[in-house]
Structure to design on (224 residues):
Protein backbone atom coordinates (compact mmCIF):
# COMPACT_ATOMS: atom_id res chain seq x y z
CA UNK A 1 0.00 0.00 0.00
CA UNK A 2 0.90 3.63 -0.23
CA UNK A 3 2.10 5.39 2.88
CA UNK A 4 3.43 8.72 4.10
CA UNK A 5 5.12 8.88 7.50
CA UNK A 6 5.82 12.02 9.49
CA UNK A 7 6.14 12.65 13.23
CA UNK A 8 2.90 13.36 15.04
CA UNK A 9 4.17 16.25 17.10
CA UNK A 10 7.34 18.31 17.57
CA UNK A 11 8.30 21.09 19.96
CA UNK A 12 10.86 23.82 19.29
CA UNK A 13 11.94 27.14 20.75
CA UNK A 14 11.32 30.56 19.30
CA UNK A 15 14.31 31.71 17.23
CA UNK A 16 15.63 28.17 16.75
CA UNK A 17 15.65 25.83 13.73
CA UNK A 18 13.44 22.77 13.30
CA UNK A 19 13.43 20.01 10.70
CA UNK A 20 10.24 18.06 9.99
CA UNK A 21 10.85 14.77 8.20
CA UNK A 22 8.60 12.93 5.78
CA UNK A 23 9.19 9.48 4.30
CA UNK A 24 7.02 7.98 1.62
CA UNK A 25 6.29 4.70 -0.15
CA UNK A 26 4.09 5.31 -3.17
CA UNK A 27 3.29 3.83 -6.56
CA UNK A 28 5.42 6.17 -8.62
CA UNK A 29 6.28 9.77 -7.87
CA UNK A 30 5.23 13.01 -9.52
CA UNK A 31 6.12 15.49 -6.82
CA UNK A 32 6.02 16.21 -3.10
CA UNK A 33 4.15 19.02 -1.38
CA UNK A 34 4.27 20.67 2.01
CA UNK A 35 1.25 22.52 3.36
CA UNK A 36 0.83 24.53 6.55
CA UNK A 37 -2.42 24.44 8.51
CA UNK A 38 -3.09 26.69 11.49
CA UNK A 39 -5.74 25.46 13.90
CA UNK A 40 -9.20 26.14 12.53
CA UNK A 41 -7.89 27.43 9.23
CA UNK A 42 -7.36 26.22 5.67
CA UNK A 43 -4.20 24.34 4.71
CA UNK A 44 -2.00 26.62 2.65
CA UNK A 45 0.65 25.65 0.12
CA UNK A 46 4.27 26.00 1.23
CA UNK A 47 6.46 24.17 -1.26
CA UNK A 48 6.68 21.69 -4.12
CA UNK A 49 9.67 19.47 -4.92
CA UNK A 50 9.93 17.19 -7.92
CA UNK A 51 13.73 17.05 -8.38
CA UNK A 52 16.31 16.08 -5.78
CA UNK A 53 17.81 18.86 -3.74
CA UNK A 54 16.97 21.83 -1.61
CA UNK A 55 14.41 24.51 -2.43
CA UNK A 56 14.71 27.65 -0.33
CA UNK A 57 11.92 30.15 0.19
CA UNK A 58 12.69 32.71 2.85
CA UNK A 59 12.80 31.12 6.31
CA UNK A 60 11.43 27.85 4.93
CA UNK A 61 13.35 25.26 2.88
CA UNK A 62 12.27 21.88 1.56
CA UNK A 63 14.57 19.01 0.62
CA UNK A 64 13.89 15.94 -1.48
CA UNK A 65 15.72 12.66 -2.07
CA UNK A 66 13.76 10.49 -4.47
CA UNK A 67 16.10 7.51 -4.14
CA UNK A 68 15.52 7.46 -0.37
CA UNK A 69 11.81 8.34 -0.48
CA UNK A 70 12.56 11.17 1.90
CA UNK A 71 11.86 14.85 2.32
CA UNK A 72 12.22 17.39 5.06
CA UNK A 73 10.88 20.85 5.74
CA UNK A 74 13.36 23.14 7.47
CA UNK A 75 12.08 26.17 9.36
CA UNK A 76 14.63 28.77 10.49
CA UNK A 77 14.36 31.65 12.94
CA UNK A 78 11.19 30.20 14.36
CA UNK A 79 8.40 32.57 15.26
CA UNK A 80 5.36 31.93 17.44
CA UNK A 81 3.15 32.20 14.34
CA UNK A 82 4.88 29.08 12.95
CA UNK A 83 2.93 27.00 15.46
CA UNK A 84 0.77 24.93 13.13
CA UNK A 85 0.39 21.51 11.57
CA UNK A 86 2.60 20.71 8.58
CA UNK A 87 1.21 18.30 6.01
CA UNK A 88 3.36 16.27 3.63
CA UNK A 89 1.75 14.92 0.45
CA UNK A 90 3.03 13.00 -2.58
CA UNK A 91 1.55 12.78 -6.08
CA UNK A 92 1.74 9.18 -7.28
CA UNK A 93 1.96 7.79 -10.82
CA UNK A 94 -1.81 8.24 -11.28
CA UNK A 95 -1.57 11.86 -10.12
CA UNK A 96 -3.37 10.97 -6.91
CA UNK A 97 -2.33 12.95 -3.85
CA UNK A 98 -1.30 10.73 -0.94
CA UNK A 99 -1.30 12.60 2.38
CA UNK A 100 0.53 12.16 5.64
CA UNK A 101 -1.32 12.64 8.93
CA UNK A 102 0.52 15.89 9.59
CA UNK A 103 3.06 17.09 12.15
CA UNK A 104 1.85 19.44 14.85
CA UNK A 105 4.62 21.93 15.60
CA UNK A 106 4.55 23.68 18.96
CA UNK A 107 6.75 26.75 19.40
CA UNK A 108 7.69 27.76 22.93
CA UNK A 109 9.01 31.19 23.92
CA UNK B 1 -8.91 35.69 1.79
CA UNK B 2 -8.14 32.23 0.46
CA UNK B 3 -10.29 32.47 -2.65
CA UNK B 4 -12.25 29.40 -1.55
CA UNK B 5 -15.22 30.06 0.71
CA UNK B 6 -17.07 27.38 2.64
CA UNK B 7 -20.39 27.69 4.45
CA UNK B 8 -21.43 26.97 7.08
CA UNK B 9 -18.25 26.96 9.16
CA UNK B 10 -19.94 24.91 11.88
CA UNK B 11 -22.87 22.51 11.63
CA UNK B 12 -24.53 20.32 14.23
CA UNK B 13 -27.09 17.85 12.96
CA UNK B 14 -29.03 14.83 14.11
CA UNK B 15 -28.76 11.52 12.35
CA UNK B 16 -32.12 11.99 10.64
CA UNK B 17 -31.47 15.52 9.38
CA UNK B 18 -30.70 16.63 5.84
CA UNK B 19 -28.22 19.46 5.37
CA UNK B 20 -25.83 20.75 2.74
CA UNK B 21 -22.32 22.15 2.74
CA UNK B 22 -21.47 24.81 0.19
CA UNK B 23 -18.17 25.71 -1.42
CA UNK B 24 -17.42 28.58 -3.79
CA UNK B 25 -14.13 29.44 -5.48
CA UNK B 26 -13.24 32.73 -7.14
CA UNK B 27 -9.93 31.63 -8.66
CA UNK B 28 -11.04 30.50 -12.11
CA UNK B 29 -9.99 26.93 -11.34
CA UNK B 30 -11.39 23.96 -13.21
CA UNK B 31 -11.14 21.26 -10.56
CA UNK B 32 -12.85 21.10 -7.16
CA UNK B 33 -12.52 18.58 -4.35
CA UNK B 34 -14.13 17.44 -1.13
CA UNK B 35 -11.85 16.11 1.60
CA UNK B 36 -12.63 14.73 5.05
CA UNK B 37 -10.18 15.64 7.83
CA UNK B 38 -10.28 13.70 11.11
CA UNK B 39 -7.94 14.26 14.02
CA UNK B 40 -4.51 12.69 13.59
CA UNK B 41 -5.48 11.06 10.31
CA UNK B 42 -4.42 11.86 6.74
CA UNK B 43 -6.76 13.85 4.58
CA UNK B 44 -9.29 11.55 2.93
CA UNK B 45 -10.25 12.42 -0.62
CA UNK B 46 -13.99 12.04 -1.12
CA UNK B 47 -14.90 13.49 -4.51
CA UNK B 48 -13.21 15.22 -7.42
CA UNK B 49 -14.86 17.30 -10.11
CA UNK B 50 -12.94 18.35 -13.20
CA UNK B 51 -14.70 20.77 -15.55
CA UNK B 52 -17.97 20.01 -13.67
CA UNK B 53 -17.67 16.27 -14.30
CA UNK B 54 -17.16 13.91 -11.38
CA UNK B 55 -13.89 12.07 -11.95
CA UNK B 56 -13.35 10.52 -8.54
CA UNK B 57 -15.59 8.91 -5.94
CA UNK B 58 -13.44 7.28 -3.31
CA UNK B 59 -15.93 4.65 -2.14
CA UNK B 60 -17.84 7.26 -0.21
CA UNK B 61 -21.12 6.13 1.42
CA UNK B 62 -24.24 7.22 -0.41
CA UNK B 63 -25.32 9.34 2.58
CA UNK B 64 -22.86 11.87 1.13
CA UNK B 65 -24.03 13.25 -2.21
CA UNK B 66 -21.97 15.82 -4.14
CA UNK B 67 -23.27 18.34 -6.63
CA UNK B 68 -21.28 20.59 -8.94
CA UNK B 69 -23.57 22.92 -10.91
CA UNK B 70 -20.65 24.88 -12.41
CA UNK B 71 -16.88 25.17 -12.08
CA UNK B 72 -17.18 27.72 -9.27
CA UNK B 73 -19.60 25.96 -6.95
CA UNK B 74 -19.58 22.65 -5.15
CA UNK B 75 -22.06 21.22 -2.69
CA UNK B 76 -22.03 18.25 -0.37
CA UNK B 77 -25.51 17.06 0.54
CA UNK B 78 -25.76 15.17 3.80
CA UNK B 79 -28.52 12.84 4.97
CA UNK B 80 -28.91 10.15 7.64
CA UNK B 81 -25.32 10.62 8.80
CA UNK B 82 -23.63 8.63 11.54
CA UNK B 83 -21.72 9.99 14.56
CA UNK B 84 -18.46 8.73 12.98
CA UNK B 85 -19.04 11.20 10.14
CA UNK B 86 -18.25 14.02 12.53
CA UNK B 87 -15.15 15.71 11.10
CA UNK B 88 -13.85 18.78 9.31
CA UNK B 89 -14.91 18.80 5.66
CA UNK B 90 -12.53 20.70 3.44
CA UNK B 91 -13.22 21.97 -0.03
CA UNK B 92 -10.32 22.67 -2.37
CA UNK B 93 -9.78 23.80 -5.93
CA UNK B 94 -6.94 23.64 -8.45
CA UNK B 95 -6.25 24.68 -12.00
CA UNK B 96 -6.82 21.14 -13.20
CA UNK B 97 -7.29 17.71 -11.65
CA UNK B 98 -4.52 15.72 -13.28
CA UNK B 99 -1.14 17.30 -12.87
CA UNK B 100 2.04 16.64 -10.96
CA UNK B 101 2.40 20.19 -9.75
CA UNK B 102 -1.24 20.38 -8.75
CA UNK B 103 -1.34 23.05 -6.06
CA UNK B 104 -4.58 22.96 -4.11
CA UNK B 105 -6.22 26.02 -2.60
CA UNK B 106 -8.32 25.03 0.39
CA UNK B 107 -11.26 26.59 2.12
CA UNK B 108 -11.27 26.91 5.90
CA UNK B 109 -13.59 23.94 6.23
CA UNK B 110 -16.99 23.09 7.66
CA UNK B 111 -16.81 21.52 11.12
CA UNK B 112 -19.59 18.90 11.23
CA UNK B 113 -20.89 17.31 14.41
CA UNK B 114 -23.42 14.49 14.13
CA UNK B 115 -25.38 13.77 17.29
Amino acid sequence: GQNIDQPTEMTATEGAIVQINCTYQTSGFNGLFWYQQHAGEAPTFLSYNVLDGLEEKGRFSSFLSRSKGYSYLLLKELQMKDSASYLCAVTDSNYQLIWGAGTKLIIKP
Amino acid sequence: ETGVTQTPRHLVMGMTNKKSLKCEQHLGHNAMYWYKQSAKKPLELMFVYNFKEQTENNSVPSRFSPECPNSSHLFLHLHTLQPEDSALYLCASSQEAVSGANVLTFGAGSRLTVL
